[in-house]
Each structure stands twice: as C-alpha cells, then as structure tokens.
Amino acid sequence: MATMAATIDHAHAHVDDRSFLRKYIFSTDHKIIGIQFLMLSLLFLLIGGLLAMMMRWELGFPTQPMPGGTLLPETMAPGGILLPEFYNSLVTMHGTFMVFFAIMPLLVGVFANYLIPLKLGAPDMAFPRLNMASFWIAVPAGVLMLAGFFVEGGAAGAGWTSYAPLSANAEYSGVSLGQELWCLSLVVLGLSSILGATNYITTVINMRAPGMTWFRMPLSIWSLFITAILTLLAIPILSGAAIMLLFDQTIGTTFFLPAEGGQPLLWQHLFWFFGHPEVYILILPAMGMVSDIIANGARKPIFGYHSMVYAIIGIGFLGWIVWGHHMFQSGMNPTLGTTFMISTMLIAVPSAIKTFNWLGTLWRGNIRLHVPMLHACAFVAMFVIGGLSGVYMASTPVDIYIHDTYFIVAHLHYVLFGGSLFALFGAITFWYPKMFGRMMNPLLGKAHFWLTFLFYNLTFFPMHELGLQGHMRRIYDPTQYAFLQHLQPLNEFITLSAFLLFAVQLIFAVNFIMSWWNGKKASPNPWEDTGLEWSTPSPPPHGNWPETPTVHHAPYEFSSPLVQEDYLMQNRKVEGAPAAAASRTE
Amino acid sequence: MNWLLPGGVSTFAGDIDRLYYVILGITGAAFVIVEVALIWFLIKYRARPGRKAYYTHGSVKAEVIWTTVPAVVVVMIGILSGGVWNQIRGRDSVPPGALPLAVHAKQFEWLVTYPGPDGQLGTDDDFERRNDLRLPVDTPMVIALTSEDVIHSFFIPEFRVKQDVVPGMTIRAWFEATATGEYSLACAELCGNGHTTMGGTVTVLSLDEYTQWLADPSRTVASR
After folding, report:
1. Would strands B109-114 and B99-106 be described as parallel, antiparallel, or unpaired?
2. What is the pTM of this model?
3. For a Cys-Cys bond, which of A64, A246, B106, B131 suits B148, CB 3.0-4.6 Å?
4. How far A135 CA lies from chain B's nearest CA (Å)?
C-alpha cells in the first residue's frame, strides 16, 4: 500500500499550469465537465422536486391555500391557492425538468463523461472542446426553460408530452411565450446532447486502451455506448418536431392544427418515436452502472456477461419499434395497436434476462452491503415492479381502462425514480471518492437510503390503487368527480409521504456537500474494484494516467482463483496466468 | 392496497377485467419470485470474513431458461389481449343495429347530440344536451366522437371505455351498458385550464324510458 501511495504522489507531481478559468469553468477535462453536469443536474433535480411538492399539495388538499403559497405571485397562486393554469405548468415543468434536465444529464452528462475515458483507459474524450461546448450549451437551455415561469402567461402547460393542438395554439392553453420557450429550450438542449453523443461514440470506438476489447468493456460503458447511439438518432427527431411546433405557434404553419389540414396525431408519432428510445436512454445507463456496483458488492463476476450485453443491444433496438404503445387510445388504427402490443411485450424478455442475471450474480456471492450496493439492490427490486406494471399497459384492452390514469404515473415513477434515481444515488456514492478524493459518510448514506426507500414506496405504490379506481392523471382537483371522492384520504396520505420523501433528501444534500471537505480521504481503490478508473489516484490528474494502462482481464474478475485478494483489476498482469481464463463460461 | 377493479357495467368490461386479473396473477407470481430470491440471497450470501464468493461467469442453461420462459409467457398474454382487443376495437367490432349518438367535445364540455324520435342522426328532430349522456340498457350504442379544439378523452370508468377525441377526426366508439343507473363521464386527456371541470353524467335508462326521452326530452325522466 505504501509503495502505491508513493507512486501516486509522484503522478501528482506532473505540472498542471492551466488557469483557474480553464481548469474549473471552461474546462475541456472530461472529469470536470462531468462534475459540472453533476452540479447543474442536481440543481434541476431539486427544482423538479419542488414543483412536484406543489402539485402534491394541490392533489392532497385541493384549492386550499398552500403553506408559503402567498410568496408566489398573484398570477400563480392568489392568496396561496394554486391556480389551475399554474397547476398545469407545474405538471408540465416537473416532467420536463426531471426527464430532460435531471435524470438524462445525471446519467449521460455526468457518468458518460466521467466514466467512459476512465473506464477505457483513455486520457480524455475524443473531442474535448466539443465536450466543453456540450455543457455550456446545456446551461442556456436550462435558463430558457426556467425563464418560462417569469414571462407573461406563465410556463408551458400542455404536459411534458406537449400534445398538439393544445400546445400549438395559445388560444387553447392561454400560454404563448412559455410554450415557445419550451420548444426553443429543447432544441438548444438537443444540440448539447448530440455533441455529447458524438463524443461518447467516437471515444468508445477509438480510444480504448490496449487490450480493452469490446467484450472486456464494463457493462456501464456498453450501456452508455448504446445510449449514445440512441441519443444521436432520437434527439434530432425531437428537435425537428419541436421546430415544427414552434413554427405552428409563431409563424402560422399548421403541421399539427387540423383546421388547416394539419394532423394532431403527427405530433404524437414524432414525439413518441423520439420518446420511447428516450425512455431507454433514461434506464440503460442506470442498468449498466447497477451491474458494475452489483458485481462489486457481490464480489463475483457478472453472471452471463455476454447475455447482459446482448440484452442492452436488444432493448436499444426494440426501443425503436414500440412507440405506438403510447397511442393505443389515441385514435390510431387499432390494428397497429396489436403490432405495437407484441413488440412491447417482447421488451419484457431482455428486461427479464437482465433481472435474472443480477440475481445470478448475487447467488453464492460474498455480499458487501455498502451504500452503493443498497441502492443497486433497491434498483433491481423497484425496476421489477416498474417493469411488471408495464405489462398491464402493454396489454391493449387493459390499457383502455388504465391509460392516462395514476397507474401510469406509478409505473413511470417506479422506472424513473425507483429505477434510475436509485441507481444514480448508488452511482454518485460509488464514484464520489474518485471525483472528489473523499468518501461520503456511510452512516448518513444508510439513513438516506432507508428513509428514501420507505417514503418512496409509500408515495408511489398507492398510486397503483388510484389508477385502478380510475383516477385520471393531470387533474387539478380530484374531488370534482363523484367516483374519485372516496380516494381523497389516499391522496392526502400520498401527499404527506411525498413531503417526507422530499425532506429526507436533505440528508443526501448534507452528506454530498459536507463530505467534500469533511469526508474521509479516499484511497485510489476504496471499494476494491476491478475497473481501470481505480488504478489512478482519487481524484485522477489531468490526463488520467501518466502512462496508458494495458488491459489484461475481463471487467469483473472478482474472487478470481488467480490472485489472493478477491478482486483482480483489469490492468493487473498476473505472471503465468492463461490469457483466456478470464472469458470462460461454464 | 386494493387490487380489485371497481365493478364493470358493460358487455366487454368482464373480458377486460378478466385479462387484468390474469396479468395480476402472472406478474404477482414473478414479483414474489424475484423479490424473495433477492432478499434471500442478500441475507444468505452476506459477506463473512475468510470466505470467497463462488467464481463463475454464468450458465448457458440458465440463460436459455430465463430467456424462453418470459418470452412464452408474454407472447401468451399478447395473444389473449389481441383477442379481446379485436372484439372491442377490431374492424367489424361495432355490433350491427347499434343505436347512434354523437358527442362533440370542446373546452370544457361534452355536447351530446340525440337522434330524436326518428332514431336517425342528421335529421331535423335531433336535439343537443350538455354534459348529459343518456342511453338505454342492454343496447349496443355507437358514438361518433368529434372535437372542436384540442384533444379530449372520452372516459366512462365503469364501462371500461376510453377513447381520445381528436380534432379533425371522427372516431367511433361503441359499448353496451349492462345495468341502469348513474355513472360519471370524465375527460382523461389534459385539455387546458378547465380540464378538471370537464365532466358529465351518464344515465343508463331502460329502453322504454330512453325511447320516451328521445320523443320528448323536455319531460323529466326518472333517473335512478
């Protein structure tokens, strides 16, 4: 250990003469850009959460003055009572911020940036300046989106899906500038995503260290690679559709306005042709990082690594042919409904393969339940619920009843919060020492995990019941409907749980911030992992390694008989070891 | 947590609900298997000093099993679903002789056009009611749905009917109510600032009462 530390100090001695501005603000270093994305998207995660709290107040206690609501302007909440138009903005902006400005950049902006070069043994991204541009383009996109709340007419209010004609004509929604800013912001953000994706794809193809063959890449990198391909192909479709919508709003085109020959369903086809690959953009990287963490926690190689890779590719491919399942009740030809149902059902297959392989990895392991591992296991447990509840919606006749109800709200939160966000909490805790050189506090981490897990389930699980009783989503006041009145106590319960869920995130915030200067100093490899990123100091210097590492082993050589320890790092050369031993399958 | 669906009051509600319970059974079993295995493994194989994990890279046999079993199960669910879907939404699913109604949605109301005494839409004796949908029991109805402005969604929870109403399109939805009584009509698609208020009543009458209503809508018809 002492000799290792000495080598690392030596590596630190490499002179870094970049100015503060070039080092931390307009940096081209993939690690700094990853951390910049982390700060930006955690901020948006907080904003998205705050919006959700206001929605929950309204649903639990309809048309009652919200505590602190008088701080909001008259145009949003006169006397503290939320207006229906403001509620619609909350619904829309909560979804938009969470999908586009929190989860997606957290998974891709942060971890594709941070991990791809470090896990592949590259000094940086293929195009560092494009990378810097991708961050500094995302910032104004976020500002444009936020600006909606401060313009006349308020923020966009047609849902994060922005169905036309409601979104296309201000006469219908009462929102003009806010709706235009929504389109503009997504076009700008799309540019950022495309630059990022180009970079990730090029880096993965061209900059792998010697010995890092395709099938020695960790699953996190496989999933980020497939995600980057999906992003590159899907985002231009959203950008195109958003520009068409913007033209309908501003210069009098009628792509989506039926009065002059437009077709509202065209928007839905375009949006979901982008939107379903987007759903997998939001889950694949989480699956990949969870695989890395589970192998580490179980101290075992990933069970069925090759199947896991093919499942990622399979999900990526199927993602393109299922968009119609969002449109079963839309008026689309019902025969198409059957086609999309079958393709959608097939997604259960690669999802099941992944789930069972995670279980297989845990089987006969020597499991360390560290904080990232807790989150990774919660990911598996919650993703199973989100995946299984998807089968109900995939079944076209059952979907007739539960479409656009709280059942789908429950489903999507089980995937995006129970899935992606738990994976992210795990991933942030896991790679925090590499990013900042210090460990997050494990006690606070466990407290945060268990409380989040509890209140998360108390918030979202009962939403299944709301949906089964026919409770529509996106309604301002459920007590308006006779058939929903008996559900009001449940709505209140969900609201209180949601408030507690939000409150306990403070533990994470405190842990995240305090550990930065207060946390235990991290060794280069605090989790005893096998990945290349752990063979360089925490945090790694500019350029990552003094010399390019050489890869000798498969990604998850835990408990290998070749070495004494229960982990064999990918770049550790073992004398006399047969080279092929690593990729053997029983 | 209540997993039961509220009682269904249309001819196809039973088929939809049955499918729901089949899926509930299958996914419930899958849920229990996975979660129990997960928790059991986490406890049984927790780290113990001096022990190493079992070194394996997987098993082809296991991969084949957990690829084919889910595939067979979901294809089966797909086939069952396809049958019911076809019966509700298929090309020739509207029963011959279904009585016509027209519902025009606009921000934020449902305008129902009744055919009048002659039973034909598009004639002089048609009349219109706002948020007031009446129909006869045990009689197939076919409703022509149109929209004035934005997309709405015609939703009668007890009938298991939901159909988006799209401006520029006329979409036909059919159903047959199986019990008299009063039910709710709701809009299930975000349609603007008044979306939450866009509701109506559905009154299922006996065929006689319905015929009387068509002949003379000014007369108050007893609703139960």
Report:
1. antiparallel
2. 0.94
3. B106
4. 33
